[in-house]
């Protein structure tokens, strides 16, 4: 009903705007008086968690992209190898799972059958399972060894938005918790990252406050038949998620690529007028990825692409090659996915709206797929 939408035209529009709070709420109440992380719904004993030698994240759809983002953070912080796998692929390929494997199942609904079956399969092989779930009392957390609930609140629109940013946040808490437990990081480092995380809701709000420009551009592109997305490092799963949103909501062919792959194939797709959305890493990052992605923008622009660029405030290098820039506030690299995904959600929703489509209930899709 209109009341449930709180004055918004769709649940998705409301849920997009709910995201600063969803991230903030997911962070609430996770530390004790000393400031150490406590995950009180984590019921696996600490000795077991100290001995795990591999993490496998299993999920489907948008939740799997949250897992891809988590891999960058958890490997960096904990020095534990992290694999991310679609639940339906994991189960049928004879995966290497032992009692030292920690499986992290991510699911908004907690009812996705493919993910549930993968959880059971992992447990049969002796793995411990932590689930990151939004829906209390659902099946996946009931069957897991431990649960870390995201506190996004009910997500009604079929296409996931606030659950996604909450999932990233929860995986980060898990990564920091493991780093604390296993002694991978000093207390001060963990505290510093928690402080960065706690600064994110206000930055998400700032990105959303700038949405009007994204909406205008989206409306001008209602006739697009194909849109490509490029990202690198944590921007890569965000490119995949941006493409998924556009397929789901606007029924436009969309594909996300790792920017480094451009020359290995996708650049052949570029012709006059091809829209390409590029997520640019921070120029303050250490590893020259910024410069590499700037050259990618130049390469596609030189071949006629229409370039829409998501970049950090102050990144003047992008302006020469961007037809449009969607600016986001400065943030540490690992925090940036929480910001860069927002314009992509707004873009897809607005474009779908301009085409007169049902944003909350796209054709052929279900909110929760409870069959295999
Ligand atoms: C469906 C939904 C997606 C969602 C996926 C996983 O395909 O349409 O939006 O990402 O299921 O759902 P889950 O509830 O497990 O996160």
From TrEMBL:
Its EC number is 2.6.1.16. The active site is at 367 (for fru-6p isomerization activity). It is found in: Cytoplasm. It catalyses: D-fructose 6-phosphate + L-glutamine = D-glucosamine 6-phosphate + L-glutamate. Transmembrane segments: none annotated. GO terms for molecular function: glutamine-fructose-6-phosphate transaminase (isomerizing) activity. Its main location: cytoplasm. It comes from the Bacteria. This is Glutamine--fructose-6-phosphate aminotransferase [isomerizing].
